[in-house]
Amino acid sequence: MLEALGDGTRRTIFELLAAGPRSVAQIADDLPVSRPAVSQHLKVLKEAGLVSATAMGTRRVYAVDREGLAAVRAYFDRFWHQSLAAFAQAAEKAAEEKP
Q1: Cβ neighbours around 17 below 10 Å, total
Q2: Which of 7, 17, 59, 62 is most deeply packed, by most CB within 10 A?
Q3: Is 71 helix (H, G, I), strand (E, B) or coil?
C-alpha cells in the first residue's frame, strides 16, 4: 500500500478521493495528466486495496476503500504506539533518576 502511495500523482488522486467519490474525468480535471494516465494510477491504487470502483452507467466512480485506509492507519498506529511506549519509558526513567 505504501508503495502505491509513494508516487506523488497517486497520493494526490487518493487525497482527492478522500474528499468524495469521483469519476476518472473529474479526477483528470484536477491534475496535469491525461485520463489514461489517471486510469493507470487508479489501477495501481485499486490493486493495492486503497480505492474501489463502482459502475454508474457508462463510467466508473472511484472512492477510497475504507478497509484499505484502515490497514494503512493500523500500520502507522503500530509505530505511534511504539513511540509512545518508548517515550513513557524514558519519562519514567528520567523521573526515577532525579534526586
Answers
A1: 22
A2: 62
A3: helix
Question: Identity (one letter) of the amino acid at 19?
Answer: A
What pLDDT band is residue 82 in, cutting at 50, 70 and 90?
A: confident
More confident residue, 10 or 94: 10
How far is residue 20 from each of residues 4, 15, 99, measured CA to CA in Å? 19, 9, 56
Spell out the CATH class of 8-97.
mainly alpha
- Grid coordinates representing 62 are 472511484
Q: Count helices and strands (H / E) in the chain.
A: 5, 3
Q: Where are the domains of the chain?
A: 8-97
Across the chain, mean pLDDT equals: 92
Per-residue confidence band for 45, with pLDDT thresholds at 50, 70 and 90: very high
